């Protein structure tokens, strides 16, 4: 079996394209996962094929990346509008990082939107590989009615719902065809010395030889051929499928490519898992591409035993063994992670290029009932196993389930899966912002802890000096007690009490960057104890903090914003509007046509930054974040935060 992925932005007609390719000969067999990835198995020219159709939403980019683990080649399906080329930038980035041979298909060519050469020029901005036009359009007025293949120089006229008809090349297209063919041959000659010599000697190479050169160059992933058509009318579909058949490399080449970009030995890789999902009453289903013969139910794979196997398209049980190259679904094989490279005895992490964009939307999930509460954390852990675009954590302070999703659509799908598959109902809210407080002036206190109850009493007397520390220095404790006024064995208890007092200061937040020094005190030979000195340390520090002019501290986050260069100009205004500080930007060395824009922003604006960034970049931009430092916050903004999240909220 041969396998390819169709990927690209939403609304480019990917699903229609897959359906038409799969229906060229006979009846296709299709299945879909709850996450929107679908598999279609079909036969073409006595070979079996599997097409993976991935969702076009930017939030689902991780699904497209994972599908490339199973793909001998891919088809990037794009719009015929030059201005839409930027929408393909994330997909070209993923394809190039993975090393997957790619064909570009400009779809919906029946809708006149611009010149093909403008579309290709706009696309080339984001591609390190040369884009090589393999056809020229035949036009009548503004309408494209057919195409001419630049290798065979044969012309075809589109016929609605039927195979295209072979025609003479119209005279008004001849000059354009010669020009485009010369350009194509020049581009191909950069990767073939024989062809270069033929062109220099002004000899006309035979079509069969050019086809062979073109096929080799795509298998070696040197160029990206560009074809066009209109899938909804079946125009250009047969030519695309034939190109894929002749030029896509075999499964063995994929196995070698995966070994080269991971820690796995080529000969040891038996299979690659590329997608997994949970279904009610079925459990976990893992989709797998086999690279070795002999896999069957009960065989060893990934360090465990394979459960029942099914055909990926039809869902029919597989009784015998699976051949190398086949795509299949494994049930009751919960030990298999996805995505992963699988040997008989272990599962190896997938190559780095499958790492999804950093999730930007943080939400607290609130279970609907006590029963749901006990199930939620285990269920989220299961989902995070099958969805690497999802991060699961706990909220600081409350311990509530905190998830990081790719965006609102991803979050909606997650809640739907929780309800429909696991019967766990959740509502959601934004997480509490992480604020701190510190002090702005020193304070000295004397605190005496005395209690007399039945039996032994409690007595501890401490004299404390509380001072602001340098930013980032954290909590420090020291002592300068002379003459044994506080015995040495009680000093650790005073420190423990002081640390406890840091958990919540007068503004209602954790206290940072404070130095506490024990300078003097008194004890009682009978009534003093660790407990008493701990209590004295805690209450003494609390009293000192309340006298030391508490200041609210907000987190400042460093963000690295990844965007196509065309959007960089708008980033200064965007960051400034969120009270951020621009640090600068560089070209992204890992992706042509992209910039990395660096800034410092207040922690409280991250969600707004995610929203504004999506809006400013047509959903393409994303950022990664790291905590940088805390800084003081004053005035009305600070008062609002204290009243909403701090001591003001707790006193209501």
UniProtKB/TrEMBL annotation:
Name by which UniProt lists this protein: Elongation factor G
Alphabetized NCBIfam families for the sequence: PRK12740.1-3
Gene that encodes it: fusA
Superkingdom assignment: Bacteria
Keyword Hydrolase annotated: yes
Keywords, comma-separated and alphabetical: Elongation factor, GTP-binding, Hydrolase, Nucleotide-binding, Protein biosynthesis
Swiss-Prot/TrEMBL GO biological process terms: ribosome disassembly
UniProt source species: Rhizobium mesoamericanum STM3625
Gene3D superfamilies: 3.30.230.10, 3.30.70.240, Elongation Factor G (Translational Gtpase), domain 3 (3.30.70.870), P-loop containing nucleotide triphosphate hydrolases (3.40.50.300)
SMART domains with a match to the protein in the record: EFG_C (SM00838), EFG_IV (SM00889)
Span of domain Elongation factor EFG: 551-641
């Amino acid at each position: 079996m041969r396998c390819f992925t169709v990927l690209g932005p939403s609304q480019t007609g990917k699903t229609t394209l897959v359906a038409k390719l799969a229906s060229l000969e006979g009846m296709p067999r299709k299945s879909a996962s709850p996450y929107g990835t679908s598999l279609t198995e079909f036969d073409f020219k006595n070979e079996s094929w599997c097409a993976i159709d991935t969702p076009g939403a930017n939030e689902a980019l991780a699904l497209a990346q994972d599908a490339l683990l199973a793909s001998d080649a891919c088809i990037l399906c794009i719009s015929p509008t030059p201005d839409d080329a930027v929408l393909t930038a994330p997909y070209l980035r993923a394809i190039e990082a993975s090393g997957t041979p790619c064909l570009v298909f400009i779809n919906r060519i029946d809708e006149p939107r611009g010149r093909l050469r403008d579309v290709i020029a706009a696309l080339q901005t984001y591609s390190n590989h040369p884009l090589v036009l393999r056809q020229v359009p035949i036009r009548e007025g503004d309408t494209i009615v057919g195409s001419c293949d630049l290798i065979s120089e044969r012309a075809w006229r589109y016929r609605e719902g039927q195979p295209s008809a072979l025609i003479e090349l119209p005279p008004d297209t001849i000059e354009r065809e010669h020009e485009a063919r010369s350009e194509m041959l020049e581009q191909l000659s950069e990767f073939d010395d024989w062809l270069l010599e033929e062109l220099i000697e002004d000899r006309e190479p035979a079509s069969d030889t050019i086809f062979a050169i073109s096929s080799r160059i795509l298998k070696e992933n040197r160029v990206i051929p560009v074809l066009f058509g209109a899938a909804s009318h079946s125009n250009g579909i047969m030519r695309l499928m034939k190109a894929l058949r002749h030029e896509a490399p075999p499964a063995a080449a994929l196995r070698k490519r995966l070994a080269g970009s991971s820690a796995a030995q080529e000969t040891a890789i038996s299979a690659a898992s590329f997608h997994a999902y949970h279904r009610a009453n079925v459990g976990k289903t893992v989709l797998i591409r086999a690279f070795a013969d002999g896999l069957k139910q009960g065989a060893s794979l990934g360090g465990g035993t394979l459960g029942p196997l099914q055909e990926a398209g039809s869902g029919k049980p597989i009784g015998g063994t699976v051949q190398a190259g086949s795509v299949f679904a494994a049930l009751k094989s919960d030990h298999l992670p996805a995505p992963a490279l699988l040997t008989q005895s272990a599962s190896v992490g997938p190559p780095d290029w499958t790492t999804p964009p950093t999730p930007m939307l943080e939400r607290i999930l609130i279970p609907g009932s006590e029963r749901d509460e006990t199930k939620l954390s285990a269920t989220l852990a299961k989902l995070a196993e099958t969805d690497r675009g999802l991060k699961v954590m706990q909220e600081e302070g409350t311990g509530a389930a905190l998830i990081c999703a790719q965006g609102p659509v991803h979050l909606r799908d997650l809640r739907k899966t929780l309800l429909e598959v696991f019967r766990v109902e959740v509502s959601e809210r934004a997480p509490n912002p992480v604020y701190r407080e510190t002090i702005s002036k020193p304070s000295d206190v004397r605190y005496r802890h005395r209690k007399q109850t039945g039996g032994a009493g409690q007595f501890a007397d401490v004299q404390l000096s509380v001072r602001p520390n340098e930013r980032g220095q954290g909590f420090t404790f020291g002592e300068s007690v002379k003459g044994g006024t506080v015995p040495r064995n009680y000093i650790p208890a005073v420190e423990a009490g002081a640390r406890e007092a840091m958990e919540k200061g007068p503004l209602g937040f954790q206290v940072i960057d404070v130095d506490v020094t024990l300078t003097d005190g008194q004890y009682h030979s009978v009534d003093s104890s660790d407990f008493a000195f701990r209590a004295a340390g805690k209450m003494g520090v609390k009293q000192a903090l309340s006298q030391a002019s508490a200041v609210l501290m907000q987190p400042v986050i460093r963000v690295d914003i990844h965007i196509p260069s065309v959007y960089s100009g708008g980033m200064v205004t965007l960051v400034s509007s969120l009270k951020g500080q621009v640090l600068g930007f560089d070209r992204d060395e890992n992706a042509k046509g992209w910039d990395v824009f660096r800034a410092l922003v207040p922690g409280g604006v991250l969600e707004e930054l995610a929203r504004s960034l999506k809006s400013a970049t047509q959903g393409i931009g994303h950022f990664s974040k790291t905590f940088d430092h805390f800084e003081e916050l004053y005035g009305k903004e600070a008062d609002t935060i204290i009243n909403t999240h701090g001591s003001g909220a707790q006193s209501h």
